[in-house]
Specification:
Blueprint lengths: L6 H28 L1 E5 L5 E5 L22 H13 L8 H11 L15 H9 L2 E3 L12 E5 L4 E7 L2 E3 L3 E2 L7 E6 L2
Antiparallel strand pairs: 1-2, 3-8, 4-5, 4-8, 5-6, 6-7
């Protein structure tokens, strides 16, 4: 039988510890590999991304529009008319549809003459007695308010409804163009 030195039991203990540690590390590596998706990117390098196992929706909730008793109630009727006539998708005739809704509800006495949506606010103030409201957030606009977006070249017009915005189409969110002004008849 070969002779054993006093270091042999220590060596066996260290070897056992290393084996146990390696097994635990391998288990964590396998576990982390299960939670990550490994792929090659466009440059051919390996990369990984976390695998999502639970979906938790983060709903963006905007408040329902409020009714402002100081504005003309005919504007709320114009919002309803515009909503009834609106389509699911844009027909690139926003100002045309808003004009019709305002005229049909009796908010304005004649059909506006401007052709471009970006000019709508100026004409509503100049010819029909609208006032520009001190509102910068489209979601804060009262029901029936006319919102004008864009710049002097391109624009968009819509009316605020209880749960969204409407022009020639319905939308739960406002236009992404810069807001030029919010207008209402008091």
């Amino acid at each position: 039988m070969p002779k054993t030195t006093p270091l042999a039991p220590c060596f066996i203990a260290i070897s056992a510890f290393c084996l146990l540690f390696a097994t635990a590390a391998h288990g964590q590596l396998v576990e982390s590999a299960k939670s990550r998706f490994i792929f090659k990117d466009a440059d051919g390098k390996s990369d990984s991304a976390e695998i999502v196992t639970k979906y938790v929706p983060k709903k963006i909730v905007h408040p329902v529009a409020k009714t402002d008793s100081s504005i003309d109630p005919k504007l709320r009727r114009a919002a309803t008319i515009a909503e009834e006539r609106a389509h699911a998708h844009s027909r690139t005739q926003c100002w045309h549809y808003v004009k019709h809704a305002l005229f049909s509800a009796g908010v304005i006495s004649s059909y506006p003459k401007t052709a471009y949506a970006s000019e709508a606010g100026d004409e509503l103030i100049r010819s029909y007695g609208f006032k520009r409201l001190p509102i910068r957030d489209p979601y804060a606009a009262p029901i029936g308010a006319v919102l004008v977006y864009g710049n002097k070249n391109r624009g968009h017009v819509e009316i605020r409804t209880k749960d969204g915005f409407v022009s020639d189409f319905r939308s739960p969110t406002p236009s992404k163009r810069p807001l030029m002004g919010v207008y209402a008849k008091l």
